[in-house]
Design goal:
Blueprint lengths: L1 H16 L5 H22 L3 H7 L1 H19 L6 H23 L1 H14 L28 H17 L7 E3 L4 H5 L17 H14 L3 E5 L10 H4 L1 H10 E6 L3 E6 L4
Parallel strand pairs: 1-2
Antiparallel strand pairs: 2-4, 3-4
Helix pairs in contact: 1-2, 2-3, 2-4, 4-5, 9-11
Length: 265
């Protein structure tokens, strides 16, 4: 991406000083500015997902320059220095574009899957069976869910039915906001997901809310979504430490731990 943006900047500067003004160059300039601004996402959060997110301006610029260089090649019939330079530049852009696409493991796997599925006719003209697990005992679910989620929901429901009542404050930690709706329980904090309390000040706010409401139980999910795979004791250390100090584990299940508040005395 950096090479594409750098080459685009040089080409636009040269065209500007030569007095060339066109809609195509303005389009390239807009893509360049947008791409540079968007590139900050990849700098702030590394990983394949962030890279894919910021690649689109670079891909569009690559396609633009491929078209421009190919048109320049077609318009120069003689084999001269200009045509050789055009061929070299076109080759570089193509290599950069293809390597950027092929080296990315997610894009590579998606491309391979698309090629495989394109020639696979089985199941494309038939109605596929519904996939997933139904949970009729929890009416608010209303959809099929995967087996792990079904196990988690079925572990939580009997305990909540036996030890809590509807609308009672129960803290689902760290990242199960939908459970408040599914089980009709109240969030004791203003953050539906604990990860939203990203700063120490916001984490202290969550702790103040928990101290004020003092929910008896915390449902601690052992397998859940993590931001950049960072565990909760690193992502939100103050809240995690608070729960360890103020709550004790009263039941361990396959997908969750149930914590109960430690009472004085």
């Amino acid at each position: 991406m950096i090479s594409i943006y750098g080459a685009t900047l040089v080409a636009l500067c040269v065209a500007w000083f030569r007095g060339i003004r066109s809609a195509r160059l303005l389009w390239a300039l807009g893509l360049l500015i947008f791409g540079i601004l968007l590139f900050r996402v990849a700098l702030g959060r590394s990983g394949t997902y962030a890279t894919m997110k910021v690649m689109m301006p670079a891909i569009m610029l690559s396609a633009l320059w491929i078209d421009e260089l190919w048109a320049s090649w077609r318009n120069n019939a003689a084999i001269n220095a200009h045509k050789v330079m055009t061929a070299v530049a076109l080759t570089v852009v193509l290599i950069n574009f293809s390597s950027g696409m092929c080296l990315d493991p997610v894009m590579r796997s998606n491309f391979a899957a698309a090629c495989q599925q394109a020639f696979l006719l089985e199941g494309k003209f038939t109605k596929l069976p519904l996939w997933g697990v139904a949970i009729p005992e929890i009416p608010r679910v209303g959809v099929f869910v995967d087996e792990w989620t079904a196990t988690s929901l079925r572990e939580i429901k009997p305990f909540l039915d036996a030890h809590t009542r509807p609308r009672q404050e129960v803290y689902f930690f760290p990242n199960e906001a939908v459970y408040y709706f599914l089980f009709d329980r109240t969030n004791p904090t203003r953050y539906p997901v604990a990860y939203f309390a990203a700063t120490y000040d916001r984490q202290r706010e969550v702790i103040r809310d928990l101290e004020r409401s003092r929910p008896r139980f915390v449902i601690y999910s052992k397998k859940t979504w993590l931001i950049d795979q960072i565990p909760e004791d690193v992502q939100i250390p103050l809240i995690t430490a608070y729960l360890k100090n103020r709550y004790r584990t009263v039941r361990k299940m396959e997908t969750i731990d149930i914590l109960e508040r430690i009472t004085a005395g």
